[in-house]
Amino acid sequence: MEAFTKLNGLVVPLDRPNVDTDAIIPKQFLKSIKRTGFGPNLFDEWRYLDHGEPGQDCSKRPVNPDFVLNQARYEDAQIMLARDNFGCGSSREHAPWAFYDFGISCIIAPSFADIFYSNSFKNGILLITLDTEKIDRLFKAVEKAPGYKLDVDLEAQTVTTPDGESISFGADAALKHRLLNGLDDIGITLEHADEIRAYEENRRQQTPWLFSS
What we know:
The protein is α/β, with parallel strands linked by helices. The protein is built from eight helices and seven strands; from the N terminus they run E-H-H-E-H-E-H-E-H-E-E-E-H-H-H. Strands 4-3-2-1-5-6-7 form a seven-stranded mixed sheet. The protein is globular.
Protein backbone atom coordinates (compact mmCIF):
# COMPACT_ATOMS: atom_id res chain seq x y z
CA MET A 1 0.00 0.00 0.00
CA GLU A 2 1.06 3.62 -0.46
CA ALA A 3 2.61 5.55 2.40
CA PHE A 4 0.54 8.28 4.03
CA THR A 5 2.48 11.38 5.08
CA LYS A 6 0.55 14.55 4.24
CA LEU A 7 -2.81 15.22 2.60
CA ASN A 8 -4.56 18.35 1.40
CA GLY A 9 -8.04 17.05 0.70
CA LEU A 10 -11.63 18.03 0.06
CA VAL A 11 -13.90 17.14 2.99
CA VAL A 12 -17.24 15.31 2.68
CA PRO A 13 -19.51 15.33 5.77
CA LEU A 14 -21.48 12.23 6.79
CA ASP A 15 -23.64 13.58 9.58
CA ARG A 16 -24.97 10.45 11.25
CA PRO A 17 -23.69 8.37 14.22
CA ASN A 18 -23.18 4.61 14.48
CA VAL A 19 -22.38 4.03 10.81
CA ASP A 20 -21.73 0.28 10.65
CA THR A 21 -19.64 -1.80 8.29
CA ASP A 22 -22.71 -3.33 6.63
CA ALA A 23 -23.67 0.17 5.51
CA ILE A 24 -20.09 0.91 4.42
CA ILE A 25 -19.90 -2.23 2.25
CA PRO A 26 -23.01 -4.47 2.23
CA LYS A 27 -22.65 -8.21 2.77
CA GLN A 28 -23.23 -9.30 -0.84
CA PHE A 29 -19.92 -7.70 -1.85
CA LEU A 30 -17.77 -9.68 0.60
CA LYS A 31 -17.11 -12.63 -1.71
CA SER A 32 -13.99 -11.10 -3.24
CA ILE A 33 -10.70 -10.89 -1.32
CA LYS A 34 -8.76 -8.94 -3.98
CA ARG A 35 -8.80 -5.64 -1.99
CA THR A 36 -9.70 -3.72 -5.16
CA GLY A 37 -12.91 -2.96 -7.01
CA PHE A 38 -15.01 -2.07 -3.95
CA GLY A 39 -15.08 1.71 -4.48
CA PRO A 40 -18.23 1.77 -6.65
CA ASN A 41 -20.08 -0.11 -3.89
CA LEU A 42 -19.00 2.04 -0.94
CA PHE A 43 -22.25 2.87 0.93
CA ASP A 44 -24.06 0.99 -1.84
CA GLU A 45 -27.50 0.98 -0.23
CA TRP A 46 -27.32 4.72 0.46
CA ARG A 47 -25.76 5.81 -2.85
CA TYR A 48 -28.13 3.96 -5.18
CA LEU A 49 -31.89 3.60 -5.43
CA ASP A 50 -31.81 -0.04 -6.51
CA HIS A 51 -30.34 -3.19 -4.99
CA GLY A 52 -26.70 -3.72 -5.89
CA GLU A 53 -25.00 -7.00 -6.71
CA PRO A 54 -21.35 -7.91 -7.39
CA GLY A 55 -20.26 -7.31 -10.97
CA GLN A 56 -23.05 -4.85 -11.69
CA ASP A 57 -22.28 -1.80 -13.86
CA CYS A 58 -22.77 0.97 -11.30
CA SER A 59 -22.54 3.70 -13.95
CA LYS A 60 -26.01 2.73 -15.16
CA ARG A 61 -27.69 2.50 -11.76
CA PRO A 62 -30.10 5.16 -10.41
CA VAL A 63 -28.36 7.24 -7.75
CA ASN A 64 -29.76 8.83 -4.61
CA PRO A 65 -29.33 12.60 -5.16
CA ASP A 66 -29.69 13.30 -1.43
CA PHE A 67 -26.67 11.22 -0.38
CA VAL A 68 -23.57 13.34 0.16
CA LEU A 69 -21.21 11.25 -1.98
CA ASN A 70 -23.49 11.87 -4.97
CA GLN A 71 -23.45 15.65 -4.61
CA ALA A 72 -21.26 17.58 -7.05
CA ARG A 73 -19.68 19.78 -4.36
CA TYR A 74 -18.13 16.70 -2.72
CA GLU A 75 -16.86 15.02 -5.89
CA ASP A 76 -13.32 13.66 -5.47
CA ALA A 77 -13.40 14.13 -1.68
CA GLN A 78 -10.45 12.49 0.09
CA ILE A 79 -11.41 13.19 3.70
CA MET A 80 -14.64 12.14 5.41
CA LEU A 81 -16.02 13.93 8.47
CA ALA A 82 -18.16 11.60 10.56
CA ARG A 83 -19.87 11.11 13.92
CA ASP A 84 -19.56 8.83 16.96
CA ASN A 85 -18.90 5.09 16.79
CA PHE A 86 -17.99 5.07 13.12
CA GLY A 87 -17.27 1.62 11.68
CA CYS A 88 -19.21 -0.37 14.27
CA GLY A 89 -20.69 -3.78 13.50
CA SER A 90 -18.89 -6.77 11.99
CA SER A 91 -15.12 -6.76 11.59
CA ARG A 92 -15.01 -7.00 7.78
CA GLU A 93 -11.73 -5.76 6.31
CA HIS A 94 -13.58 -4.92 3.11
CA ALA A 95 -14.78 -1.67 4.72
CA PRO A 96 -11.39 0.11 4.62
CA TRP A 97 -10.72 -1.53 1.23
CA ALA A 98 -13.85 0.20 -0.09
CA PHE A 99 -12.78 3.62 1.25
CA TYR A 100 -9.27 3.21 -0.16
CA ASP A 101 -10.57 2.14 -3.57
CA PHE A 102 -13.05 5.04 -3.64
CA GLY A 103 -10.30 7.56 -2.87
CA ILE A 104 -11.04 8.50 0.74
CA SER A 105 -7.83 8.07 2.73
CA CYS A 106 -8.68 9.93 5.94
CA ILE A 107 -11.73 9.83 8.24
CA ILE A 108 -12.22 12.24 11.15
CA ALA A 109 -14.74 11.44 13.90
CA PRO A 110 -15.23 11.61 17.69
CA SER A 111 -14.86 7.83 18.04
CA PHE A 112 -14.38 4.66 16.00
CA ALA A 113 -15.09 0.97 16.53
CA ASP A 114 -11.85 -0.70 17.65
CA ILE A 115 -11.53 -3.33 14.91
CA PHE A 116 -12.41 -0.89 12.14
CA TYR A 117 -9.79 1.49 13.57
CA SER A 118 -7.05 -1.13 13.43
CA ASN A 119 -8.11 -2.48 10.02
CA SER A 120 -8.08 1.00 8.52
CA PHE A 121 -4.51 1.81 9.55
CA LYS A 122 -3.39 -1.58 8.21
CA ASN A 123 -4.98 -0.80 4.84
CA GLY A 124 -3.84 2.75 4.16
CA ILE A 125 -6.63 4.78 5.82
CA LEU A 126 -5.78 7.36 8.49
CA LEU A 127 -8.41 7.66 11.22
CA ILE A 128 -8.32 10.80 13.35
CA THR A 129 -10.20 11.11 16.63
CA LEU A 130 -11.18 14.63 17.72
CA ASP A 131 -13.50 15.74 20.50
CA THR A 132 -17.13 16.45 19.67
CA GLU A 133 -16.80 20.22 19.98
CA LYS A 134 -14.10 20.32 17.28
CA ILE A 135 -16.09 17.94 15.08
CA ASP A 136 -19.17 20.16 15.40
CA ARG A 137 -17.16 23.21 14.33
CA LEU A 138 -15.78 21.37 11.33
CA PHE A 139 -19.25 20.24 10.24
CA LYS A 140 -20.47 23.83 10.34
CA ALA A 141 -17.42 25.06 8.42
CA VAL A 142 -17.84 22.42 5.70
CA GLU A 143 -21.55 23.26 5.33
CA LYS A 144 -20.83 26.98 4.89
CA ALA A 145 -17.91 26.70 2.47
CA PRO A 146 -18.14 24.63 -0.72
CA GLY A 147 -14.75 23.24 -1.60
CA TYR A 148 -13.67 23.11 2.05
CA LYS A 149 -10.28 21.41 2.42
CA LEU A 150 -8.11 20.35 5.32
CA ASP A 151 -4.35 19.85 5.55
CA VAL A 152 -3.46 16.65 7.36
CA ASP A 153 0.10 15.97 8.52
CA LEU A 154 0.55 12.52 10.03
CA GLU A 155 4.18 13.02 11.08
CA ALA A 156 3.29 16.20 13.00
CA GLN A 157 -0.14 14.77 13.96
CA THR A 158 -1.97 17.95 13.02
CA VAL A 159 -5.05 18.96 11.05
CA THR A 160 -4.94 22.52 9.71
CA THR A 161 -8.07 24.39 8.64
CA PRO A 162 -8.24 26.91 5.76
CA ASP A 163 -8.10 29.79 8.27
CA GLY A 164 -4.84 28.49 9.73
CA GLU A 165 -6.09 26.78 12.91
CA SER A 166 -3.89 23.80 13.78
CA ILE A 167 -5.62 20.93 15.58
CA SER A 168 -3.49 18.21 17.18
CA PHE A 169 -4.55 14.56 17.22
CA GLY A 170 -3.20 11.40 18.80
CA ALA A 171 -2.03 8.29 16.98
CA ASP A 172 -0.88 4.84 18.07
CA ALA A 173 2.88 4.72 17.43
CA ALA A 174 2.87 1.30 15.76
CA LEU A 175 -0.08 2.10 13.50
CA LYS A 176 1.45 5.48 12.64
CA HIS A 177 4.67 3.70 11.63
CA ARG A 178 2.68 1.45 9.31
CA LEU A 179 1.04 4.36 7.50
CA LEU A 180 4.12 6.56 7.24
CA ASN A 181 6.02 3.69 5.63
CA GLY A 182 3.19 2.13 3.63
CA LEU A 183 3.41 -1.20 5.45
CA ASP A 184 0.64 -3.79 5.59
CA ASP A 185 0.98 -6.98 7.68
CA ILE A 186 3.28 -8.57 5.10
CA GLY A 187 5.42 -5.44 4.98
CA ILE A 188 5.73 -5.42 8.76
CA THR A 189 6.90 -9.05 8.66
CA LEU A 190 9.45 -8.33 5.93
CA GLU A 191 10.99 -5.62 8.11
CA HIS A 192 12.32 -8.55 10.17
CA ALA A 193 13.47 -10.63 7.20
CA ASP A 194 17.10 -10.79 8.40
CA GLU A 195 16.10 -12.02 11.85
CA ILE A 196 13.76 -14.59 10.31
CA ARG A 197 16.47 -15.92 8.02
CA ALA A 198 18.94 -16.09 10.93
CA TYR A 199 16.43 -18.01 13.05
CA GLU A 200 15.71 -20.46 10.24
CA GLU A 201 19.44 -21.10 9.64
CA ASN A 202 20.04 -21.62 13.36
CA ARG A 203 17.09 -23.97 13.52
CA ARG A 204 18.43 -25.91 10.53
CA GLN A 205 21.80 -26.38 12.27
CA GLN A 206 20.28 -27.40 15.61
CA THR A 207 17.73 -29.85 14.18
CA PRO A 208 19.00 -30.93 10.74
CA TRP A 209 16.77 -34.03 10.74
CA LEU A 210 13.72 -31.79 10.39
CA PHE A 211 15.06 -30.45 7.09
CA SER A 212 16.35 -33.68 5.54
CA SER A 213 14.70 -34.88 2.34
